[in-house]
């Protein structure tokens, strides 16, 4: 986040010429790099592959010894059952609506807050920021009952709005914390230059700070989307009508009172992972752009 | 470009208005509507892990039948994951937002009654006694708290011994073990086969009491005031000692002491790891879907000095005092005690709580017979608000006894002392 | 957690004083314009702060208040003031200390690996290449999967007849016979920590990747020109630049470590009280006022459903 200094500096010229020995060493290093990455990826992905494989097994083959990596016999029953026994499509949609709106609102509100904290000095600034940080350390479970009563008094029970309001509130602290540092890293000179051109505070936030903080905004977006998409306890607590049910609760319903069908739970979970992976794929490319490109060079 | 400040002002005003508007709309959900009809909300866990037959019977057959008979009353059933139902009930109670009716695990009724959120049906429901008398006494007793009945049994179940031919063949037996002695004999025969004679998933009352009662032991005195001298009486100790001996011989897997990594009983029996388990009537449906080739054999709990005595499980239906339509709700409670309701649910694996319908139930599937017979002598666990703590105490104290670091007698004496304190608290 | 963190925004050399509002650029501001300038920062933070105050802060205050009462759950019931009684009881409860110890051990074994490995992967992935996005997704997959699911998955992998025992025993012949990973305190901690690290690496990798975008390339080049080695460059250039991010990751992981809950419950949950086969014993299963978690007193009084997170 000391990027400030680097950004102010002009970018260096083209790559410097190097000798052939260096090139050979570089390719060896590159091979090593890939080897390490692949080894790590295998460890990361194996449990996942096993989960995918299990989602295509019937219960009788879930616990066989030796474990089967390639399901035999393979079945798509789990997916059929996941998609048909409940109103899976509706719950999917509910989760998507809640996650998208919550993420958008949260990133907007917390980036505004972060900008306020980063760019201005005003009475109460650090105090308010510190109080905000309390939100990071309090376990959600502790607040369930007071929040439930509050939601009731606000008429937010059993509604998607009730999910959005508390999801946004719950994610503000982390996002503001995350974004503040990035905004502070944006060189002051740029701000001043825009101001001389007559740009107001909001324009500077919207036109300058936000585009420059793309990697941080992408991170906040991914984290918030994931958290809201996945949230279970609050959703279970305030939602009653099946029409407003979200995906994690629906998946939990697949774990019966008397037995768990692993294949079914995994199949439903894998279906639920897809949107998060999509969001990740879409937003992660902003890491590649971001600070180093953007307004500074251009 | 607009002035930034005005945009911000507009944004914050929007948030404020949204909050205010939300605040004004509160207080909805009284259950009444313009045409004078009432809607009752009914929470339960009929969903049963993706197996929708129970929910279908309720939503597609029984509720429509009730609504037809009682114009103006609508029932909205909401399925909630079993593991989370009690938590949701508690939070909702704090907000005064409970549904009208709940299908509660029988262990929860005293606890909910203790919170003061239930309507005592024995006071409020006309003809309660007649309905109550028709049910199994063991099931009914789970609704009793502080001298009043807070619910009626909705469905029941009990544990019986389940085995299969493969296991009997491995032990060279012609019939399932009928006595404690048979179990020990079977264990000796299975030594070295890699199959354990018995497996269970814990050391709570649900798991242990059948062995204690069948062995002739007791858990508490009849007034539910004392466990010392009963839970740690010689016959209770002997029953548990038998299990500990089998455990030490490797004939009971450490699933019983809480190893979450051990194969569960519902997979271990059909998989040939375990020779016998104690389990309930729901297993049939689970196995028929997951292990189509598995042919379970059902038999009574092995008998000891006390005969064959199992433990009552099941659910009760209770009415919350936040219900605004208690009369309508009591009509539905009465409906759940009818032949139509009980027999229809029996078809989906929910056993009837009314002995008079046992024959019809056996006609649906003969295997119910074993369970109905077992129910005649089955007992219920301690009907106290802290009943789940009893399970925690038993698990905590007895695990060392199984692992060999203390004796069964000492463990049960310590457990009994703690349960005494709970019983004293509950009064 | 130390709040000094708020001040470690090191980065900007006195950014605040330089901000436009402090030094009017255009001449002769009117009174209302001056007022507006004072209001600007508050307008930026107002919507968020307002929402935070209502939906988080107010419930926190209530929860803390509740912890001083023998709280009656039901709406309208009168609760009795007990002062620090709930806290005293937690302090006297051995479960509380054990779960605190477990939290400490958990953090010790999960936080450093997540930071080191997350940073290492981020460094490896920093350079652009066609396969880079693929690797990012692969490393990030565990993060996007819900805790409940990955806990079930790891429980399944570490089961007596699970993949771990199979790999170590039958495949690699590193051990003889099956280990009941989830039944012993230490072996269960290994499994839980393995899950924590596995699930968390992708998260810290993300933060480090974002932070590495801010590392001045010119400095790296300059250091290379000066003949600095890889390690020297890392220490002199990269590390200082990503230091705030590293602090951020550390703080978040420590907080997360303290709140670890689902994985412990799912993987080692004690024998369920009632039906034997439910494989996800949750909170409700182990209702017991005497049991505690790291946040015991608050938790205990605010909900009758408290769980001890001791493996």
Automatic annotation (TrEMBL), chain A:
Pfam families: BPD_transp_1
Domain of life where this protein originates: Bacteria
InterPro entries given in the database record: MetI-like, MetI-like_sf
Region (Disordered), start-end ranges: 1-22
Coiled coil region boundaries: none
Keywords on record: Cell membrane, Membrane, Transmembrane, Transmembrane helix, Transport
Domain ABC transmembrane type-1 span(s) in chain numbering: 92-283
Annotated compartments: Cell membrane
SUPFAM superfamilies for the chain: MetI-like
Major location (coarse): membrane
TM stretches of this protein: 32-53, 91-115, 127-148, 160-183, 204-227, 262-283
Membrane topology: Multi-pass membrane protein
Protein family: Belongs to the binding-protein-dependent transport system permease family.
Protein name, UniProt field: Sugar ABC transporter permease
Taxonomic placement: Bacteria, Bacillati, Actinomycetota, Actinomycetes, Micrococcales
From TrEMBL, chain B:
Tree of life domain: Bacteria
Keywords (A to Z) from UniProt: Signal, Transport
Signal peptide extent: 1-21
Family under the similarity heading: Belongs to the bacterial solute-binding protein 1 family.
PANTHER family: MALTOSE-BINDING PERIPLASMIC PROTEIN, MALTOSE_MALTODEXTRIN-BINDING PERIPLASMIC PROTEIN
Name of this protein: ABC transporter substrate-binding protein
């Amino acid at each position: 986040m000391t990027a400030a200094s680097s950004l102010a500096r002009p970018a260096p010229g083209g790559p410097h010429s190097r000798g052939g020995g260096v090139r050979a060493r570089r390719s060896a290093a590159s091979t090593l790099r890939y080897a390490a990455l692949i080894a790590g990826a295998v460890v990361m992905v194996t449990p996942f592959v096993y989960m995918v494989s299990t989602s295509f097994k019937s219960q009788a083959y879930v616990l066989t010894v030796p474990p089967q990596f390639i399901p035999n016999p393979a079945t798509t029953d789990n997916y059929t059952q996941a998609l048909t026994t409940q109103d899976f499509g509706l719950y999917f949609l509910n989760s998507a609506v809640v996650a998208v709106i919550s993420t958008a609102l949260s990133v907007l509100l917390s980036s505004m807050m972060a900008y306020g904290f980063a760019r201005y000095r005003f009475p109460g600034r650090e105090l308010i920021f510190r109080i905000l940080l309390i939100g990071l350390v309090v376990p959600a479970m502790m607040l369930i009952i007071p929040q439930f009563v509050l939601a009731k008094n606000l008429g937010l029970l059993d509604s998607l709005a009730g999910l959005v309001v508390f999801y946004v509130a719950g994610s503000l602290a982390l996002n503001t914390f995350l974004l503040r540092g990035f905004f502070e890293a944006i060189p002051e000179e740029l701000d001043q230059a825009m101001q001389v051109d007559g740009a107001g505070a909001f324009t500077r936030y919207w036109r300058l700070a936000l585009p420059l903080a793309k990697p941080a905004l992408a991170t906040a977006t991914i984290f918030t989307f994931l958290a809201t998409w996945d949230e279970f306890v609050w959703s279970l607590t305030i939602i009653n009508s099946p029409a407003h049910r979200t995906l994690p609760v629906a998946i939990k319903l697949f774990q019966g009172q008397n037995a768990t069908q692993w294949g079914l739970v995994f199949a439903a979970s894998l279906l639920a992972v897809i949107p998060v992976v999509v969001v990740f794929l879409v937003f992660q490319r902003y890491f590649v752009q971001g600070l180093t490109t953007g307004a500074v060079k251009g | 470009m607009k002035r930034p400040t005005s945009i911000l002002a507009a944004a914050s005003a929007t948030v404020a208005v949204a909050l205010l508007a939300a605040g004004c709309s509160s207080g909805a959900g009284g259950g009444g509507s313009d045409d004078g009809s009432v809607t009752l909300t009914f929470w339960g866990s009929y969903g049963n892990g993706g197996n929708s037959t129970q929910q279908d019977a309720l939503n597609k057959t029984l509720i429509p039948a009730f609504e037809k008979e009682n114009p103006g009353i609508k029932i909205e059933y909401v399925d909630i994951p079993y593991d989370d139902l009690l938590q949701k009930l508690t939070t909702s109670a704090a907000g005064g937002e409970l549904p009208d009716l709940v299908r509660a695990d029988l262990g929860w009724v005293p606890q909910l009654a203790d919170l003061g959120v239930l309507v005592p049906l024995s006071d409020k429901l006309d003809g309660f006694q007649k309905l109550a008398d028709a049910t199994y006494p063991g099931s009914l007793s789970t609704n009793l708290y502080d001298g009043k009945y807070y619910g009626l049994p909705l469905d029941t179940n009990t544990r019986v011994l389940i085995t299969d031919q493969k296991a009997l063949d491995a032990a060279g037996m012609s019939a399932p073990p009928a006595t404690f002695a048979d179990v020990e004999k079977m264990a000796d025969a299975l030594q070295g086969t890699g199959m354990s004679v018995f497996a269970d998933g814990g050391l709570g009352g649900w798991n242990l009491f059948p062995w204690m009662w069948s062995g002739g032991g007791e858990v508490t005195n009849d007034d539910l005031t004392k466990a010392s001298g009963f839970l740690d009486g010689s016959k209770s100790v002997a029953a548990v000692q038998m299990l500990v001996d089998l455990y030490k011989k490797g004939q009971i897997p450490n699933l019983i002491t809480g190893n979450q990594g051990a194969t569960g009983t519902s997979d271990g029996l059909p998989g040939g790891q375990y020779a016998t388990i104690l389990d309930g009537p729901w297993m049939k449906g689970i196995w028929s879907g997951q292990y189509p080739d598995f042919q379970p054999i059902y038999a009574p709990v092995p008998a000891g000095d006390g005969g064959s005595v199992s433990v009552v499980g099941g659910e009760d239906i209770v009415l919350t005092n936040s219900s605004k339509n208690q009369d309508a709700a009591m009509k539905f409670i009465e409906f759940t005690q009818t032949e139509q309701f009980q027999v229809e649910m029996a078809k989906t694996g929910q056993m009837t709580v009314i002995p008079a319908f046992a024959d019809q139930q056996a006609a649906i599937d003969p295997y119910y017979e074993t369970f109905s017979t077992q129910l005649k002598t089955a007992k219920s666990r301690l009907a106290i608000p802290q009943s789940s703590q009893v399970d925690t105490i038993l698990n905590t104290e007895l695990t060392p006894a199984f692992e060999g670091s203390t004796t069964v007698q000492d463990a049960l004496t310590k457990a009994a002392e703690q349960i005494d304190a709970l019983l004293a608290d509950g009064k | 957690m130390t709040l000094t963190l708020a001040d470690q925004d090191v980065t900007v050399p006195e950014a605040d004083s330089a901000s436009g509002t402090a030094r009017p650029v255009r001449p002769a501001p009117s009174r209302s314009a001056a007022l507006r300038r004072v209001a600007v920062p508050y307008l930026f933070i107002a919507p968020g702060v307002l929402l935070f105050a209502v939906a988080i802060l107010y419930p926190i205050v209530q929860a803390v208040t509740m912890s001083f009462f023998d709280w009656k759950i039901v709406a309208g019931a009168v609760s009795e003031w007990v002062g620090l009684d709930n806290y005293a009881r937690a302090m006297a409860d051995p479960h509380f200390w054990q779960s605190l110890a477990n939290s400490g051990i958990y953090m010790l074994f999960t936080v450093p690996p997540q930071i080191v490995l997350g940073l290492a992967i981020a460094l490896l992935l920093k350079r652009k290449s066609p396969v880079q996005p693929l690797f990012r997704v692969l490393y990030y997959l565990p993060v996007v999967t819900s805790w409940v699911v990955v806990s079930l998955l790891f429980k399944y992998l570490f089961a007596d007849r699970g993949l771990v025992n199979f790999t170590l025993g039958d495949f690699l012949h590193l051990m003889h016979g099956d280990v009941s990973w989830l039944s012993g305190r230490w072996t269960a901690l290994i499994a839980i920590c393995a899950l924590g690290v596995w699930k968390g690496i992708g998260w810290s990798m993300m933060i480090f990747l974002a932070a590495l975008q801010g590392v001045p390339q010119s400095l790296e080049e300059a250091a290379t020109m000066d003949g600095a080695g890889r390690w020297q460059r890392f220490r002199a250039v990269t590390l200082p630049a990503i230091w705030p991010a590293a602090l951020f990751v550390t703080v978040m992981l420590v907080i997360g470590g303290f709140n670890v809950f689902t994985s412990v419950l799912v993987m080692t949950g004690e024998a369920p009280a009632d039906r034997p086969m439910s494989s996800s014993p949750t909170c409700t299963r182990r209702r017991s006022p005497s049991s505690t978690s790291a946040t015991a007193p608050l938790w205990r009084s605010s909900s009758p459903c408290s769980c001890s997170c001791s493996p």
